[in-house]
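Researcher: Structure prediction, please.
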Amino acid sequence: MFAAYAARIDPDHPLDGLELGEVPAPEDRPGWTTITVRAASLNHHDLWSLRGVGLPEERLPMVLGCDAAGIDPEGREVVVHSVIGQSGHGVGPDEPRSILTERYPGTFAERVSVPTWNVLPKPKELSFEEAACLPTAWLTAYRMLFTNAGVRPGDSVLVQGAGGGVATAAIVLGKAAGLRMYATSRDEAKRVRARELGAEEAFEPGARLPHRVDAVIETVGAATWSHSVKSLRPGGTLVISGATSGDRPPHAELTRIFFLELKVVGSTMGSKDELQALLNFCAATGVRPVIDDVLPLDRAREGFERMVAGEVFGKVVLKPS
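Model: Predicted structure follows.
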């Protein structure tokens, strides 16, 4: 079958390890289901895999991709939950949690196999392209906002780095849930888009906000960390799920954190139940993922290049031909 896969690891030039071509199709195994992929979406996790984070060289070649929607063997429209091992379903009971492409081939292929427990029904209200955007970036944003940030309708939230998949999802989900959303971006066009998606205001990085917020959604890391901490009200919560600009900020702001009794909460992906809740939320409210572009799988490199260059607003979706 045709796939986009990691053939080599290169921390400095990750796209040098990306290959497109034929790979073996998944084999049947007890307790697993093979899905015919109709749509899959790109995440920064795929770039980290090409850099060797979570993917050692001994597991190469590895089909990339975490997110997918498609058709199961009975003809049902489904969505894949890409966290494998957290429940013991389909794998050994002692196997640690991992995400597709860390241990098992991913979704940038004509077919993908996952534990049957990881397959959820796709709501009829969502297209394959829309559903394929949800299981990683949108699920991460959902968990950050509604499980870990502790916010309620009417509360205010700052989202750092508008334009990224998680950040974009957080703006849309937060607005739909009655939160007052603010955003930052270095790019004026992305600030305009953030306002169009529901942010009350979008600022340049480091700008002073109209008031301190109840929570900050942080995926940028070192470049925005100090601003995130300084933007919180006393007792506020900073939720972090990534560090695309690096994980070692020049100022940790420890004094401010303990003096103002701020909460710093790490957040990674989300549970199957949270993905089901996210699917239901989108179906019920009309909220839809922001899709930057839809490309055929054989043009996957274009999507990766745009993501590396920071030229994406929302999600890039890949469709097997």
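Model: The chain has nine helices and 18 strands.
Researcher: Thanks, that helps.
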